[in-house]
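Predict the 3D structure for this chain.
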Amino acid sequence: MKTRLLIPTLALSLATASSVQAADDKTTAICAKAEERYVEMYGHPSSEEEGVTVVTMYKYNFCPREITVPVGTTVRWVNVDKRTSHSVIVKGEPESDRAFPEEHIEFTFLTADDPQEYLCGPHWESHDMIGMVTVTDE
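Done. Predicted structure below.
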């Protein structure tokens, strides 16, 4: 009986790992396209912005989905979509105004905190548009 259970369990584990890898590949492709859009809009990579950490919003994704920043960092969420607006909700703060295509939202993190989710108000439930930020004492 136990041997029979191992085969379906192994098959389920392999299927789950395969679907996670496919999702990661899809997110990687979406984020690469988001960066291309950013460069089209601003003429340089998002990593070259001074004084801010850039997170792009594209195809119902935050790119990158997880960031770690030191206290005092301003995060700039830039909407690189062509037609959709997004907002940002950070724990303990009111929802931002909507950022329409080519607009951005900024928030400065003033205290260190354990990893915390931030959300796109209109899309977190319907499209799982959720990011994670960790603020450190560096």
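Helices lie at 2-42, 124-127.
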